[in-house]
Amino acid sequence: MEPNTGADDPCQLCHGVRAAYTCPRCNTRYCSVGCYRAEAHRACSEAFYRDCCLERLRDHRTPGPQHKVLREQEEQTLEQRMEGLDLDRDLDRVWERLSEREKREFDALLSRGEAHRLIPPWVPWWERTVEPHRPGLVEELDPSSGLPPARLKPAVVPVEELNPSSGLSGLPPARLKPAVVPVEGDPPPPLSELLSKPPSPTVGPALASVLFAYALTARNYAGNLDSDATLAMLAASPALGRGVVYQSTALALQDALRLAQERGESRGLCLLALHDSARLLDRAQWSCAALADAALALNAARRVLLRSSARSCFLAKKKIDFLRSWIAAESGSLASLSAEAQLEYEESSTATKHLDEDRKRLEEAWGGPRPPRQPGPLIQEL
């Protein structure tokens, strides 16, 4: 509002009083706040108040230089406070060195069920590992280095070269490290030394069941296959944990999927594990690496579990060793196994999509997740 320099100009809104002010937007002369807010001047007055509110919001949201300096000092202080601590083990000492504000923020996250936002998402190694046949990612060693070919490590792809379709593009690059394929260890014995006749066609479905259980467990435990995770892996694969024999890959995966959902696993996680099993079966190197990782977990669990569970781990380890020998001899069968697992994944995904669509239609018709209560008694006496 600007004072009006014309002393005798009447108010252009009420036409009855001398105008004391001039609108800076439209130069309309007015006498009071009431006239400024009048319907005839509404466009200018609302624009003025809107601009004032936006300016206040900008002042509130944009920290000034002093606030930025204080924030940087606080972050530097936090880094200094945590210096020399093992953040994975010295949990009590880490908590003691947090400020009261930091403790309140953490407690608030816990109370809202949002603490998982602090944990970087875990990405399986088979989703970040380069295809074995991709050229240009393996460097030839200097012959004078003396390293045998067996010492060559699998090539890994840099984070920035990941295909966005892999579902990883939305993750912060700083949180993703190039994955290394698990070490396979000693080569398995030839299959001819284990069998005197051709292997049964049920070995392939058993392998698919084991890889499904491995992928499901790895995702559930963020790759940390401790003794609890190992027992969960045995329970997730009837072929591995109980010696169940399946006549087809579809039956093996359907049974594993059913058991996982009965134990409370989400449908989405189970579908991911199905897709993982198809991906692991697509490469003999990846199948063997997954089995080797599972074998290491079984060996470690044997040393800490009770005798009955330790024996189950021992027998499962023997089955995995046999599967590794089978892959070495029958690697040509993996392509068909991978295709069958991929087909099972696609069919299960389609069925899930149809179920979700049916559920959504019913909820829209019901006006909620449950059908409306019927009026009156459901049973009447005649």
UniProtKB/TrEMBL annotation:
**In Gene Ontology terms, what is one molecular function of this protein?**
zinc ion binding
The chain positions of domain HIT-type read: 11-44
Spans annotated as Disordered: 348-382
Which segments show compositional bias classed as Basic and acidic residues? 353-364
Species of origin reads: Eptatretus burgeri
Key word Transferase present: no
SUPFAM superfamilies to which the protein is assigned, alphabetical:
HIT/MYND zinc finger-like
Which protein are we looking at?
Answer: Zinc finger HIT-type containing 2
Q: Which UniProt keywords apply?
A: Metal-binding, Zinc, Zinc-finger
